[in-house]
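# step 3/5: fold
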Amino acid sequence: MSENGNQAEAVVLREDANGVATLWLNRPRQYNALSEEVLTALQTELDAIAADETVRVVVIGAKGKAFCAGHDLKEMRAEPSEGYYNDLFSQCSRMMMSINQLPQPVIARVHGLA
């Protein structure tokens, strides 16, 4: 398992089993909103998975009652500048393109709010 920090605090968890890499969004109290930290952690894991020939499929799921509430609006409101928004959306676009360009198929395990 690869993750940022310890498991209790990691915003993205990774489990590998039998060629399947499962990434878990892990901010259930915030409905797994996409903060800068989540985007960075997802990008790190996606980059590692892209280079891992033992991974045959990727599943993206989430802990808690919601899959993902979208961008973290509280974080966005804390720095309401055009430059910040441009950087944030560029980071998000890069992460989404990384999902699209992975050599492995990707399955979204969506539940609740999405």
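# step 4/5: annotate
Residues 12-108 form a domain with the 2-enoyl-CoA Hydratase; Chain A, domain 1 fold (CATH 3.90.226.10).
# step 5/5: archive (pending)
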